[in-house]
């Protein structure tokens, strides 16, 4: 194992962990307890809400449009106060149906560690009908 191996995941190093996050069909961002963006993935399909390296260390309030900053702050305040642990939103933009979820991230002792933001383009999912079972896949 390399210097970046994680004790929790036998045989998994940070390169694999980052590749795993970049393979997910969602945008993932993490904001620490000081409201600073400390991580975002780079999905192969491209991010719904683009980010640059300049966003790392930036206060999350500066990454949102002015009209939504007060709502973002209320969510963060509620997470810190343990009033709620999730917040969900959806919107239509550029012909896409976007689902945005915020999750409070807490340590084992319950201390607020930050917020995980997960955004997904659900346009194709929303249009699904009927069933497609695994049995119909070649070789299964």
TrEMBL record:
Write down the InterPro entries for this protein, in alphabetical order. Answer: PAS-like_dom_sf (IPR035965)
Look up the domain of life of the source: Bacteria
Cross-referenced Gene3D superfamilies? PAS domain
Please give one Pfam family short name. Answer: PAS_10
UniProt name for this protein: DUF438 domain-containing protein
